Amino acid sequence: MALDKNQIAQRIAKELQDGYYVNLGIGIPTLVANYIPEGVEVVLQSENGLLGMGPFPVAGKEDADLINAGKQTITTVPGSAFFDSAMSFGMIRSGKVDLTVLGAMEVAQNGDIANWKIPGKMVKGMGGAMDLVASAKNIIVAMNHTDRKGNSKLLEKCSLPITGLQCVKKIVSNLGVFNITKDGFECIEHAPGVTIEEIKSATAGKLTIANNVREMSF
C-alpha cells in the first residue's frame, strides 16, 4: 500500500543526524518536525526567521505569532532564536544548512527539481526554494510518485520550470526511497505492500533496482 504523507515524513526523519541544521519546505516536509527520532538533536530553521522550530502545536495551544514559512502555526524549543529574513537567507546562502527537505512537482533522473510553478496558474513566486537548492549540502525530496492523473513525477527530464539543477540527492515518495545516481533513479526501498513492478510502471525516468533493495521500515 502506498504511504500517506505522514509516513513519508516519518521515513525522511530517519535521515536526520545528530547536530544537523535542517530546513523544511512547505507541505509534506513540514511534518518531519513531528517525527525526529529519540536521541537525535537537530536544529530546524525556518526561512521566515526562526532557528529552533519544534513540532506542530496541539489543538487549542496555537500561537498565531509563531508560524513557519508556509504560514502554519508552530512551536519553539528552548534556545530558539528569532531574526529577520536577511539573516535567515544569509545562513542559507553561506551553506550553514546541512539538509533541506523539499516538496516537488517533478524530479529528473539527474537530480533537477521543479517545484515552484505550473504554467498558466497564478503563483506568488519561487520564494526561498531558489536559495535552498543552490546552497544546501544535501536535498531530499518528499513527494507523491505520480500526479492526480497517474502520470509519473520521476522523469527523464523536467517539463516544468526548473528550480535547481542536479541538486537532489534522494527522493522519498509514497512508493519508495530512491537515490539519484549517474544511472538515474535507484530504488533502495519499497513501501510496504508495493511491488517493484508497480514502482517500475510508475517511473518514467531511468530506474535501477538496488541489489539489496528492502521493504521500508519506520
Explain this structure.
With 218 residues, the protein is an alpha/beta fold. The protein has a single domain (5-215), classed as Glutaconate Coenzyme A-transferase. It is built from four helices and 13 strands. The protein has helices spanning 5-13, 85-93, 129-135, 196-201, and strands at residues 21-24, 43-46, 50-53, 76-82, 99-103, 106-108, 113-114, 139-143, 154-155, 170-173, 176-181, 184-190, 207-215. A hairpin with a 2-residue loop joins strand 11 (176-181) and strand 12 (184-190). The two termini are 15 Å apart.
List keywords for this structure.
single chain, alpha/beta, 13 strands, Glutaconate Coenzyme A-transferase, 14% helix
The rounded Rg comes to 17 Å
Number of domains: 1
| CATH fold node name | Glutaconate Coenzyme A-transferase
Percentage of residues in DSSP E strands: 25-35%
**Helix content percent band:** 10-25%
Structural class: alpha/beta
The residue-averaged pLDDT reads 93
- CATH homologous superfamily placement: Glutaconate Coenzyme A-transferase
Q: Number of DSSP strands?
A: 13
What is the C-level CATH assignment?
Alpha Beta
Which parts are unreliable, with pLDDT below 50 for 5 consecutive residues or more? Answer: none
The ordered string of helix (H) and strand (E) elements is HEEEEHEEEHEEEEEHE
Spatially, the strands of the biggest sheet line up as 4-3-2-1-5-8-10-11-12-13
Helical segment count: 4
Main sheet specs: 10 strands, mixed
CATH architecture: 3-Layer(aba) Sandwich
Rough shape?
Answer: globular
Distance between the termini: 15 Å
